[in-house]
Amino acid sequence: MRAPDEALIVIDVQNDFCPGGALAVAGGDEIVPRINALMEGFSCVVLTQDWHPGDHSSFAETHPGAAAFSQVDMPYGKQTLWPRHCVQGSTGAAFHPDVRTDPAHLIIRKGFRAGIDSYSALFENDRATPTGLEGYLRSRGIGRLVMVGLATDYCVAYSALDAARLGFAVTVLTEACRAIDLNGSLASQLGAMRAAGVQLLP
Questions:
Q1: Residue of 12, 16, 29, 162 marked catalytic
Q2: Phi, psi for residue 27 in degrees, rounded to 5
């Protein structure tokens, strides 16, 4: 069993991010057995879940004429436009059916405000609006985080960078993650995580 001040954060292992989903990450389902096994060793397990309204501003279809994976300027900065995914209550938004959810002490839903996206488990994309996860972890005396899930270069990386910025000791298990790798995003975010002091392990 891991130390009581250490938590496992399982990020967005949802149907739409797995093969066959609306925003599928290659091999996204391959990480599920390892994640399930990891849960046994932690006294605190948190799952995150993308949870968008149908008209979310990060969807390309809400910007007439815009293509998926293009970028637009939002009040909080550049925003990549995505195919419609993880709509609240949909099958795509559900956790992959093989992911164990019973060990989870907390499920954090993010991206539910229509006007702002939320990659990170800790903040929305303005980097200022909290999800509430930090307070939960602090109240439980958690200071160290192990992160796994989808996708390495987006929600995992944003979560890791925010957690490091808040003073948590962060480890990302890269082989329990899979990446989108959009325009070199994987190499860029791995470099950013290393620079921020995030430990990258297999």
A1: 12
A2: 75, 15
Measured between alpha carbons, how far is 6 from 194 in angstroms, rounded to an integer? 20
What is the rounded CA–CA span in Å between residue 105 and residue 115?
28
Sign of CA dihedral 125, 52, 10, 45: positive
Active-site position among 44, 155, 162, 177: 155
> E strands within the chain?
6-11, 45-50, 71-74, 77-80, 106-110, 144-150, 169-178, 199-201
Tokens found for residue 73: 């300027």
Specify the DSSP class assigned to residue 25.
P
Hey, what are 193's tokens? 């995580």
d(CA 54, CA 38): 33
pLDDT at 1: 86
Residue in this structure with the two tokens 């990258």, named with its chain if needed: 200
Active site residue 110: yes
pLDDT, position 25: 98
Whether 44 sits among the annotated catalytic residues: the reply is no
CA distance 88 to 77: 25
Q: How far apart are CA 17 and CA 63, in angstroms?
A: 22
For the chain, 202 residues long, the average pLDDT of each consecutive 10-residue run is 95 98 98 98 97 98 96 95 98 98 98 97 96 98 98 98 98 98 96 98 98
